[in-house]
Amino acid sequence: MADELQQNSLTETEVNIPEQLEIAILPLQNTTLFPDTVVPLAVGRERSMRAVEAALSTEEKLLGCVTTKSEGVTGDEAKFEDLYQVGTIVSIKRMMRNEGVMQLIVQGLERFRIIEWQTDQPFIKAKVEKLPELERVDDEEVEALKRNIQQMIQQALAMLPQVPPEIRMAVMTQSDPVQLSYFLASVLELGTETEQKMLEANTTDELLTLAHAALARELEIMQIRSKIASEAQGEMDKAQRDYVLRQQMKQIKKELGEDEDEGQKAEAAQIRERLETADLPDDVRKEAERELKRMEALPQSAPDYHVIRTYLEYILELPWRRSSEEKLDLNEARRILDEDHYGLEDVKERILESLAVVKLRPDSKSPILLFVGPPGVGKTSLGRSIARSLGREFERMSLGGMRDEAELRGHRRTYIGAMPGRIIQALRRVGVNNPVMMLDEIDKLGNDFRGDPASALLEILDPAQNNTFRDNYLDLPFDLSKVFFIATANSLGPIPMPLRDRMEVIQIAGYSDREKLSIAKQYLVPRQINENGLQPEQLEITDAAINLLTSRYTREAGVRQLERAIGNLARKVALKVAEGSTEKVTIDAQNVKDYLGAPRFHPESARAELPPGVATGMAWTEMGGEVLFIEATLLPGGGGLTLTGQLGDVMKESAQAARSYLWSHASEFGIDPEMIKKDGVHLHVPAGAIPKDGPSAGVTMASALASLYTGRRVRTDTAMTGEITLSGLVFPVGGIKEKVLAAHRAGIRRIILPAQNEHDIEEIPDDVRKELEVITATRVSDVLNAALEPNGSRIVDANGRGPVLPMGTDGRRPESEHESLIAKREDVER
Hints:
Number of strands: 24
Shape: elongated
Strand order of the largest sheet: 1-3-4-5-6
Strand content: 15-25%
CATH class of the largest domain: Alpha Beta
Largest sheet: 5 strands, mixed, barrel
Helix content: 40-55%
Radius of gyration: 47 Å
């Protein structure tokens, strides 16, 4: 400020200025020039420099200075409407060039008003008229304003010790109130709008009033800044920059009448009022009141104050005792489940059982279910239907890839940015303590140095423990027993056994082709027609076309890819409709290829003829069941057992066990032991690029090897599955429904299963089961008798110790022969 005061002078310069003249205009940013002041200017923009050069070329060196209305408008960009109409005529006293910038010293002479804008290139030029001098009114009001201004100037100069004494004297001895006001406006930063109003003032009274108001405001700001600086000075040595700003903000609020203590008291009173009306358990209320007292004792600027406030807000917003009203209409719940999902009778029955228990005993604990099945069978959407049938809120939480245990249990409040776990946050969002909460992809959980989320779920999903679940952030017991937890997984393998033990596992197998057809007709086709902007009368997809999509364009246990294929058909029809076609489009099996191209899959089908050494097995995959052909061939002069087809260790061991069992019982099966001893055998499982593992192919490998060694073919209409042991027992395996459905799709009508899997036959749809002949086996001999084609001889294992009996034409042992064999076996045992 002192430099600016030194650069200004109240010198007088007599220049004869006509009443009207044409003059170059220099636009100014954030600067207003006044008469009777001398100020420096820096001009660097091209158009502005041309205006200065035009002024210097005249004898009087006069230039019109006008301020821009907007701060963002530069001198070269300024248009006529961007400039004020009143400015100041200045005389250029000195000009120096320094690195392409003109350094000017100008003196303000007279005010002017623009009459007419003439041009804006190569510089702005306008016709202006000189404004008359201000009407000087010498009365008591003007004198009072002048003295008040001088008094405020003294106060301002007292807070600016760097101003030289001669400048102070020059200001205080100025007798002309107009020159004094202009001088103050040029020195102080009053704002463009205020300075322009002072320049446009026509009377001394008006000018002094504006100057007095502006100076009073500046003085008040200077006083507040000085007070803030003095009060914060004692804290400067030990506080960081943010703390200094906080102290200054505190003083500013105090000056504005916004007392921090009052705001803190009002905030604490509001929380206390909410606490008194909230329905909280006694232990939770006691803890909340203790934390509230701590908050009231802390200053609002303390970090712990905001931590406690956030903690109390969480406590007040959680639904400790707030539940949603449930629907107890079993018929309506059954209707909703049937409306949303086709089939899945076991799951629907389990849900209705839970609803019946709630109806009979409202205080019962909600069940914890685990849906296990391939992708696309409707596990997640089934959760939404359950919530709708129960009349509860639904909240879905994806656990896939979660590695941090704190995401479920929350962080302790000692950490910066601590927050509750996702379980508590979900309950806060839904606002009730009995929602249906779906834990999606529970088999995709991970773990690392931050903890094991699966271990955290042990308490959450245990009905005996979750009624006192403690989140690390809240550290208060929350009752999760009313939450209906539903977890989903594609397989049980990755789920730890203790966690699996806490849930009721419900297997959701894949759909049969007939079930997929019904699902497509009832749900998928209408939904895709609607989502693609079509009307039901514009598109029809026949049953044959849907069956073709199921078998040749998709390979899955669920219906997700099927719906995607139907949506692809609907989009192609939508394109025709959008182009103006009004004809109904009917898609049949014959024209599916025209829309989707060639079929993508060629599923295995029952072979018309199987040579000796080939047997048909069944396998389970994440996409459903598959038919598996196992081929064996002799290697004359070779040795050992060669296995190919990307087989896992368990599957290789099954092949070795099958060969060893047949070798050790060769005489009983009519096999020459020397053939096994001298000749090697190569066993191959096609689709060699796909890894395979598991024990369920044991009976199929045994049948293929027995067929190879005996020369008897395996029946082409028969498929089998089961694990074998070296003692000849057949053990049960899993995935029976998926395997049988795959065999049925391939055209196979005879199925050999372990006897202990007989109960799994009930899971097979009735329409499929009616077309199948299911044979159960307890020993390998039972499998071979049912699988190998008859050749007049009968296989009896070592435990039977009976004679070789002729086989029936259907490959089964006649009942009388069977009874005779049992009797002989009992005699031997005695």
